[in-house]
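Revision sheet: structure tokens.
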Amino acid sequence: MTNTESYTGIDDLTVALHDGVLVVTLNRPDSLNSLTAAMLETIADTMDRAASDPAVRVVRLGGAGRGFSSGAGIGADDATSESDDPFGDTLSAANRAVRSIIALPKPVVSIVQGPAAGVGVSLAVAADVVLASEKAYFLLAFTKIGLMPDGGASALVAASIGRARAMRMALLAERLSAADAFAAGLVSSVHAADDLEAEANAVIETLKSGPAVALRKTKAAVNAATLTELEGALDRETEGQLALLASHDFREGTTAFQQRRPAAFTDD
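Predicted:
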């Protein structure tokens, strides 16, 4: 498995292997790379395959266009699943994608050049090195539409920036700028927009040429020490989110969002 034909993505998520670097790109720029179940399942399948592929030394995860990802889509174009529960399918796929990034025994570098929102935050910070443009920001806006963070965000974000700051992001849906994200510990570094690509390439080259066994054991050790609550978080988020997806408040929240008006929540 040493050529680009070894990995096949989909229209909305491209995958290519170049000289030891597996490049995974969210490819829905017109919607700020909003995520579908198919995209998330493809991420998980790709990571699972890369885990045992000696040709893959490092994974680069990014988004096409001006943003990383606006999160799981809530419009008709986003419900690509033919099942009776497309939102539930997307939630399950998001959990699988996040697990696969963390479990991959190889370094994953995410490049966040613009907005990362919703489960897009989870995907970005599940990576081992998170590089952000000064134009980037991170947003958990779930409560604005009657939902809760998912994709492991309640564990991943809190493990990175602490409980108090995570609560502000999650409860108040506060946007975290790239500079504040770096100061809080959510991202590894922040760069001028024009420098981000070169900085990312330098980091990726260092990891690609590094000692693979030592990198694998280091990643596993740090994750084991800091993400002890991830599985519990995914279970709690799934239970809570499935209930919220069936609520009146979610229907009102999404309608209000689409109509660009304040939501009138009724707590049911």
